[in-house]
Amino acid sequence: MSELEITAPAPGRSRAGAVQRIPEAVTAWALASPLVLVLGFFLVLPVITIVVVSFWGSTEWSFYPAFLWDNYEFLLTSPVTLSVYLNTLMYTVLTWVFTLVIGFTVAYFLAFHIRTQTWQIALFLLCTIPFWTSNIIRMISWIPFLGRNGIANSVLMDIGLVNEPVEWLLFSDFAVVLAFVHLYTLFMVVPIFNTMMRIDKSLIEAARDAGATGAQILWNVVIPLTKPGIMIGSIFVVTLVMGDFITVRFMSGGQSASVGRMISNEIALLQYPAAAADAVILLLTVLIMISAMLRFVDIRKEL
């Protein structure tokens, strides 16, 4: 009896053995399945629907299921589409350059010139105060400032730089880029500042002890170590500007066009297949741009 008692498996032990026999892959998929279902329903399924609708046909008053290449053929061969995409790319590149310069400068000042963490947090929160309001409100606030009788023109005429109001300050490409920079600079400041805060300050001290100048330290130490944050901020800015339509509409006064605004106009005209085809091409363009940026740095180190 004693030998049987020793070799007989306990009930709790058999359950534990059964749990251990469950493959790890099954457990991993079971844990990830809720997230997969949510992303599949709210991300993958809408994209598939847009791709399917982009091949449908349309008339002046309706659209119908079909498999046609007419929408893509028109978009890829139309000079209007090419000019709109070039205009959108111009906005994107200019906004990216200005937000990168401003964002890097602000992040560098906060990370390396503010010694106490309390002041770093306080000044960083101060940068975020304008972003506590709506994008539309912050964008429209530029209209009375840049208008013909606005503050900017009044100051320019008072100091004698111009004799009459400057027309291109408002409802122009300048106003569009200015609004973009104002709206999206924070998306460049945050990841760059987060990356700079992780830089070991002893590396900078070692470079300074080795005789490196400030410019050499910046170029050879700070910028290489900040590349992941720069790429993350660049991805945010590029995707937001490429898909934006309301800023171009208001700040250009209807005189400029972008891909987002073109899609919005097609939806207003009930041209859903054409709008879906535009959305697919825009998505592919953005993915190509992001893929090109990711070839320069591995942002997984930052994530």
Question: What does this protein look like?
Answer:
- The protein has 303 residues and is mainly alpha-helical.
- The chain has a single domain (78-302), classed as MetI-like fold, CATH 1.10.3720.
- It is built from 16 helices and 2 strands.
- A two-stranded antiparallel sheet has the order 1-2.
- A hairpin with a 4-residue loop joins strand 1 and strand 2.
- The longest helix is centred in the first third of the chain and has 35 residues, at 79-113.
- The model is unreliable at 1-8 (pLDDT under 50).
Summary of the model, kept short:
The chain has 303 residues and is mainly alpha-helical. It is built from 16 helices and two strands. The protein has helices at residues 2-7, 11-20, 24-53, 70-77, 79-113, 117-128, 135-140, 142-146, 151-158, 173-184, 186-196, 201-209, 214-243, 246-251, 259-268, 272-294, and strands at residues 57-58, 63-64.
